[in-house]
Design goal:
This protein is an alpha/beta fold. It has one domain. The protein is built from 8 helices and 5 strands. Helix 7 crosses helix 8. 37% of the residues are buried. The model has no long low-confidence stretch (mean pLDDT 86).
């Protein structure tokens, strides 16, 4: 690992658990990949971006800056999600904060490990489908990463196909209006690339 990566998540369990599972699986220290979420980061995309910016400034001031920063957010019902997504693009400071958006929720990323579907879903529907696929034992923890790892390449392909589908069918719509959608695959592929 040559780069320090900051990942700021909306959730305290699902997203943080997944990326902590990634970090542990690859034996990365928290100095290499720092995963932050929950109350510390807030639940609104604006607060997540602001918290990421604060952590970036603090790390730089302490002489140990991050090389990359990501914000992992859900579409949920945030009315001003477009402004929140544009916010990191408007920053002049480095590193830029990249967004990993899921619509309606992070569970869309988990579902991509099992199937490709363009059917619009609510958060509750996505969670129920995932629970069914996992035999009723869906737990929001870092252990799920290891269970999903064998299908990760398929999930990355499916998420890319899903973005392409929305671009082809509804290219005029903003990305946060695409349901279902996930960009988590881009972050996962980036992290996998660092392992090489």
């Amino acid at each position: 690992m040559r780069e320090r990566v900051l990942i700021v998540c909306e959730g305290a369990e699902t997203e943080v658990g997944y990326f902590e599972g990634f970090r542990k699986h690859h034996h990365l220290s928290t100095l290499d990949v720092r995963v932050v979420g929950g109350d510390e980061a807030g639940t609104h995309p604006h607060s997540i971006i602001q918290h990421a910016e604060k952590l970036l400034r603090t790390a730089a001031r302490e002489g140990d800056p991050f090389d990359r920063a990501w914000a992992v957010v859900d579409r949920d019902d945030h009315q001003d999600i477009g402004q929140a997504i544009a916010q990191p693009q408007e920053r002049k400071a480095k590193p830029q904060i990249r967004m990993a958006l899921s619509n309606p929720c992070f569970e869309v990323w988990y579902l991509q490990h099992y199937r490709y579907s363009t059917r619009c879903q609510t958060r509750d529907e996505a969670s129920a489908e995932l629970r069914k696929l996992l035999g009723g034992r869906y737990e929001k923890s870092d252990r799920l990463f290891d269970e999903l790892l064998p299908q990760q390449a398929e999930a990355i392909r499916n998420a890319g196909r899903l973005r392409k589908h929305h671009e082809d069918v509804s290219g005029h719509q903003a990305p946060w209006e695409h349901n279902p959608r996930t960009d988590v695959d881009i972050l996962v592929a980036f992290l996998n690339g660092l392992m090489k």
